[in-house]
Amino acid sequence: MEQSKAKKPLSKGAKIGIGVAIAVVVLLAAVLVYAFVITNSGYWFLSKFKADTPEQQMSYTSASDTSRTIADEGFVLMQNNEDLMPLATSAESKTKVNVFGMRAVQLVYNAGGSAASVVDKCVRLEDAMAEGNYELNPDLLNLYYNYYKTGKASIAPTEAPGNSSASEFITEPSNITVPDVPGEILTDTSLYDDGRSILDHAYDYSDVAMIFVGRGGSEVFDFTPSLLQLSEDEASMVDAVCSKFDKVILVLNTANAMELDFLRDYPQIKSVLWIGYPGEAGIHSLVRILSGEVNPSGRLADTWLVDNLATPAANNYLQLESDGTWNANSYHYTNAPDDAGYFTQYSEGIYVGYKYFETRNDTDESYDYDSEVMFPFGSGLSYTTFDKDIMAINEDSGVITVRVEVTNTGDVAGKDVLEIYYNPPYTGAIEKSTVNLVAFKKTNLIEPGATEYYSIEFNVEDMASYDYTTNKAWTLEAGDYIISLRNNSHDVVDQETWSLADDIIYNDANDGKRSCDLVSVTNLFDDAMGPDDFLTREWNQDSRAFTGPKEEDFTASQAVLDAINGCSIPTDAELGLTEADLPAVGVTLDTPIMLSDMKGVAKDDPKWDEFVSQLTLDEMALLSGNGAWHIEGLERLGVPFTRTPDGSVCVGASTYSGAIMGTDAAGITYPCPVVTASSWNEDIAYMMGTSAGSEAQVNGYAGWYAPAMDTHRTAFNGRNFEYYSEDSLLAGTIASNVVRGATDKGVISFVKHFALNERESNDRNQLFSWCNEQAMREIYLKPFEMAIKEGGSLGVMSSFNYIGTEWAGANSTLLTDLLRDEWGFEGLVITDAHVYPYMDTIAMSYAGGDLSLDAVGAWAPFDSHAGQLLDAAKNPDTQIGMTRNLFRASKNILYAVCQTWAVE
């Protein structure tokens, strides 16, 4: 028998090779587990290579149509001297037009930050103009293409640059402005062999010039006054163009109101068209308005000023340096740590936007309105004219009906906006603007010579003012209320008087609550008032509203210093909680209740508590603590993994959120919210909401961090593009209809940023906001209130700033007393990006917050906020209170998820 051979031992190199191979396999397995089991990043990566489904393609087409409809009605013709517009085209040949301004080839379609979107598919101006039977001067296009790429003047043929603005999640705000071709290049004679300038050749091409001026925007950015003026290059360009052309159209590609006083120096600029940020397909509307295919009907959502510093709020916004920049440490408490403790005072009170300028004009004989206001709030022109008047005003059972007759007296069909304002009696006991928007209506398309009749209703109580000093309640003072129909906040068309014999005080001690209130309203935010010399009609130029903070305001109180240092968490003993207060968790039912079983079950039904009791403490902590762009799923109870992307201009994933959600899907870029508000059309707003909701469905999203509805307190906020208006009624009406549309599609709208979040600078460094309750309730809270009560929002996102001495995300007065107890909110409250040290997760939970947007902990939640919540629920000192908090938060979260399309 042959002896078996001994196995030869492996060489050292072979052992190393096997070890490396095993390590590679283990590493690859770990990567796959991390990418597809622990996180969703692998699914996100794979989704980049998936073709759109037919449903997605159909949704894209429908959303593009919606985008154009919003722009058709939202773009505003601000000026049209000598009826320069429309520029009609002919069937025989294309109409030639010159375009000037770098924004003509680098339009701002959307701005940056969390609302950014990929804009490379947005329609370019030259393509839309060509489709609209216009021909643009190719030499000018090449000039701008080359100058954008190289910074040098050349008319040599070259490829157009791609769309570049707002294509990142968070970027440096480098695209706020772009270098423009200065006037000296336009008048230079070296670009042509014949010794004539490009302006000379342009005039030969066409006697019409279109100038484009635009500004970007971004999160974590505030405009300086100079950035909202023409730059030196833009000013020289405008001057050069106007020296050659007498037919000039100015197109404003900006969401923030710019200073347009230069228009008074250039009568050559006959027409001014504002387009905001047009989004993916909205630029087609510019062309249709230019040609007259669409008759413009938009109205301004803000007051446009000669000098943006003229608004009283500007004096308390940021500190202006001598070089025109903002002080980086504006309004920092001198006794606070260097990197924390900033403040902002809303010292103007209710006198925001037109409410200041119109009231000042009506009550101060020395005031020169025209020297400060360039275009009033609500302004906008049409290619036709309308006669309108109030036929009658009737009041029945607390409802006022204004009957309006409208006749199209021009030659083309068009839509008008019926703006109803009121002027209440003023005794000095409660501050009141002389001009207050109370109702509005967009008309139908009215044919030339046709007359239509409209009934516009509002409640008597809608004219109440909030008295935070004496009655501490909504109050209607006796006297004459002048109800006016206006073309804008300044131009009265017709008016009538409605009289009230006796005061009405809306509280339990007097006349009962308002019909829109669940409970009688009284002061909640006395602690957030700060210095109490708010602006009054005495127009005291020494007040904080006009001077900014006083020297003593820069010293933080002990309460502020304590807040900077953090908050204390109450123990169960301090709260008086006993074992009897501990809710049951981790209960095993004979027949498990699935989330789908809860469809249609009212939130106050005991079955909800029974359902939530099935969750373990770990599951509750994960559900509440790990909420970055998603809501955790729970397969055993039929709870879906719910994706909740950012907004407010697109429903889609960014690089970071996509990796967490496990998808790269994105809808179109809509015109920015200011454009939607400028339509003054509730139906358009609802259409936008349903369109966004439909896109969310086909892309697998059941939530949307939008709409944003803070106030255009000044023109300087870099996020004004995300917000709607300076006026709370207009903002609230439009926003609530967007919310209602998305909600009807089964999508949670997380309305944001709640609240008093009207500035970006240092708002992530413990910014303390001080405001009186009248201004809070009449202006800053009202859009949110309408979104909850009328829009049915099931989501709210709290803000970064403090209200008084409590961070908004851990402010129980805001999140519980107001939002839930007073407004009846039934959904969930999420924090803004929960990445800053002062944002205390445990305090959030005790205050009524439900979900942490833990952008960092999303990859290892129990090492972050979910773990903090779980530890607090296991701590003997806080076990009962935190378990109750997690039970409540889980119920709020799952109730909202249950209302979405994701749960059948």
TrEMBL record:
Span of domain Fibronectin type III-like: 416-489
Source organism per UniProt: Pseudoflavonifractor intestinihominis
Name of the protein in question: Glycoside hydrolase family 3 protein
InterPro entries: Cellulose_deg_GH3, Fn3-like, GH, Glyco_hydro_3_C, Glyco_hydro_3_C_sf, Glyco_hydro_3_N, Glyco_hydro_3_N_sf, Ig-like_fold
GO MF term (any one): hydrolase activity
Keyword hit for Membrane: yes
Pfam families in UniProt: Fn3-like (PF14310), Glyco_hydro_3 (PF00933), Glyco_hydro_3_C (PF01915)
Entry-linked PANTHER family: BETA-GLUCOSIDASE (PTHR42715:SF10)
Keyword DNA repair found: no
Protein family membership: Belongs to the glycosyl hydrolase 3 family.
Keywords: Hydrolase, Membrane, Transmembrane, Transmembrane helix
SMART domains: Fn3_like
Membrane-crossing segments per the record: 20-46
